[in-house]
UniProtKB/TrEMBL annotation:
Gene: RvY_07112-1
UniProt lineage: Eukaryota, Metazoa, Ecdysozoa, Tardigrada, Eutardigrada
Pfam families reported in the protein's UniProt record: CDK5RAP3
GO biological process, one term: regulation of mitotic cell cycle
Protein name, UniProt field: CDK5 regulatory subunit-associated protein 3
Stored InterPro entries: CDK5RAP3
Record-stated family: Belongs to the CDK5RAP3 family.
Protein's organism: Ramazzottius varieornatus (Water bear)
GO cellular component, one term: endomembrane system
């Protein structure tokens, strides 16, 4: 094959085998690393320090993009630096035989010649190209990918934190709206809101009037079905005493004063009818034997109990009893029938009594009565839905037409009971009642609401922190983009120089380095 024919045969060299190819073709010596080390020592010791002492030259190096550190110099940068100095009048003077007279330019020219002397520059550039393509470019791309992922993650966390903070702030507004407060000063507004409880109680008492028909129906049902055999205090008006009181008297103390008077009178009458005369004389606490006092059974039991307590406390009771003749056939009955007595606590005046709905225990019992009434009505509705003739059969068996109520009326009664029950179970009313009944509930509720605002602020601060981190990641990502482009362009320049230099050694044959700069991109 002639030289002309071989000229058109390309030379393909893989990047990973480029250094070995240069050594195997004897373009470079195996010990080129030692020669390169001597060249760099000379650059660091004499050439570069002299250049950096001149501020004008240093400024020119910065403008040309040349490194200011000797360790970053290579063959190509040395040639660029030599061309830069050759354009300056102070460095380009030569003697008669064409040698540079300036020592800096002369040393730099010697360095370039040493590079070219055993093709050390080819070995150095091949190593640089391999490092850039194999390590530097992938590393920067990996960092860019990590920064993109971090930026997306920070954006997601920012959105989540803002959403969480917004949700808790909305919950705070809703709870404040439910409690009827603005939320600016929670504790003071809650204390102020508790003042509307009497109006809410009056509304419940007014709305409870619709249950009078329901109470009557349930009571009549119990009376008719059980025919008087039912427990006495579970039938008639005593089935729903608190609801009856709420319907009749409204939100007033329970039991009302007139009922208390009737109960006391009935108790006194019962005592007079059942308690026999014992003939017991009790001496006064001064020891007088002539003044005897007969127990007045017309006095109320509460008065005698009060006197007895005072006597016990004073320690002045004299148990010296006078003897009386026993009547034949009669025994003293010491048992007192206390059935039907209602003992009211001493000192419990009207000023100390609470209204029905202001008493937590009575309020709970009222709600229980509503639940019992609702359960009964729902049971009746289920029976009528499964047995179409339930009311007729019950009417035939009992002979009372009052129990014949159709399903629509039962549904209406259920609706009325649920309406009143909903007023009791209103969240605002329950919270205000707890504020009134418990001293610690106010602090606990205030802390609970304020904790939501604290969490909102915490989420907003975290969102701001994530936003700052995202911006930092995006800025670093933007900086790596031009750096990657610069690195790829530098690799292309080095690869082009190596291909041209090798091509000159083989009669301008086309040389291609496979897996080089053409295999990477800036994307």
């Amino acid at each position: 094959m002639s030289a002309e024919e071989t000229r058109h045969i390309p030379i393909d060299i893989h990047l990973g085998q480029l250094s070995d190819w240069l050594i195997s073709r004897r373009h470079c010596a195996k010990e080129w690393h030692a020669s390169l080390l001597k060249i760099r020592e000379k650059l660091a010791a004499s050439v570069y320090p002299k250049l950096l002492t001149d501020e004008a030259t240093k400024s020119d190096l910065e403008k040309a993009g040349l490194p200011l550190v000797s360790s970053e110099l290579n063959y190509l940068t040395c040639k660029q630096l030599l061309d830069l100095l050759s354009g300056k009048e102070a460095y380009n003077s030569k003697n008669m035989i064409g040698q540079y007279q300036n020592p800096v330019t002369k040393d730099l020219n010697d360095v370039v010649k040493q590079y070219e002397k055993e093709n050390i520059h080819l070995a150095e550039l091949a190593q640089m190209l391999y490092r850039k393509i194999t390590y530097d470019v992938p590393f920067i791309k990996k960092e860019m990918t990590k920064l993109d992922q971090s930026s997306a993650e920070y954006s997601r966390k920012t959105t989540e934190c803002l959403k969480s903070g917004g949700d808790f702030r909305e919950q705070y507004r809703q709870e404040c709206g439910t409690l009827g407060i603005q939320g600016e000063n929670v504790r003071e507004e809650l204390l102020e809101g508790a003042k509307v409880l009497p109006a809410l109680y009056e509304n419940i008492a007014r709305r409870s009037a619709i249950l009078e028909y329901v109470c009557k129906y349930v009571e009549e049902f119990a009376d008719v079905v059980h025919k008087g055999g039912w427990v006495e205090d579970q039938t008639g008006p005593k089935m729903f005493p608190l609801l009856r009181h709420l319907i009749k008297y409204g939100n007033q103390p329970y039991p009302p004063e007139d009922e208390c008077t009737v109960l006391d009178s009935a108790a006194n009458a019962a005592v007079m009818d059942t308690a026999p005369h014992t003939g017991v004389d009790v001496e006064d606490n001064e020891g007088s034997s002539q003044g005897s006092m007969e127990v007045n059974l017309n006095a109320t039991v509460a008065d005698h109990l009060s006197e007895l307590n005072n006597s016990v406390n004073n320690g002045s009771i004299d148990f010296d009893l006078t003897e009386t003749e026993d009547q034949p056939g009669e025994d003293i009955n010491w048992d007192i029938d206390t059935g039907g007595l209602v003992i009211v606590a001493e000192g419990g005046g009207d000023s100390e009594k609470k209204n029905l709905l202001e008493n937590p225990e009575l309020r709970t019992q009222t709600v229980n009565e509503l639940h019992e009434m609702l359960a009964f009505l729902q049971r009746r509705l289920d029976e009528q839905s499964t047995e179409h003739m339930a009311s007729d059969l019950l009417n035939i068996q009992t002979g009372d037409s009052r129990l014949a109520v159709d399903g629509k009326k039962v549904e209406q009664m259920i609706h009325d009971v649920k309406e009143v029950l909903g007023l009791f179970e209103d969240h605002r009313l329950q919270s205000l009642c707890k504020l009134q009944d418990s001293n610690t509930f106010l602090e606990r509720l205030t802390k609970q609401l304020e904790q939501k605002l604290v969490f909102c602020d915490r989420m907003e601060h975290r969102a701001e922190d994530f936003r700052i981190r995202r911006n930092e990641a995006m800025e670093e990502r933007q900086k790596l983009g031009p750096e990657l482009v610069k690195l790829i362009n530098s690799a292309k320049e080095i690869q082009g120089f190596i291909e041209q230099d090798i091509s000159k050694k083989y009669n301008d044959r086309r040389v291609t380095i496979l897996g080089g700069a053409q295999s990477v991109s800036a994307n």
